[in-house]
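Lecture 7 notes: from sequence to structure.

We start with a single chain of 148 residues. Read the sequence below before looking at the structure.
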Amino acid sequence: MFIVNVEGAVCKDGKWLIIERSSKEEHAGGQLSLVGGQVENEGISKALLERTLQREFMEEVGIHIKEHMIFLRNTSFVLPDGREVLDLVFYCEIDSGEPFAKSPDEVAAVYWMAAEEIFDHPNSPIWLKESIVEARSYLSSSIMNATI
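Now the structure, written as tokens:
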């Protein structure tokens, strides 16, 4: 059985909302990341992934994101203890608030970074870079479709 994790890619003025994960985090401590977290079991539920992302954005960086989200990609990985994780990435937009490191046990710092800064950063894991590539591709295609 997979652990399900969701992440949200947010872009504002050409820069991506990136967190530095706390060194206390079990997985990827000290690494750059999108905001996100583990989906909790609720039994029968609707919009569980979206609500999880909204909760994680509020808990980690103190902002509200809009209800409408665009699915970008999914991957899987294995934690050091052998548990398997299904990771789902969505494109999100801020509804209100300014991000800050609200939960120091989870978030060491909050940054707005250009894609090239993310790609060049020594603490930027490959999965973050791949998610930014997907999100940037989505934004480019949606802008092109809007002008047609």
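The mean pLDDT is 92. Keep this in mind for problem set 3.
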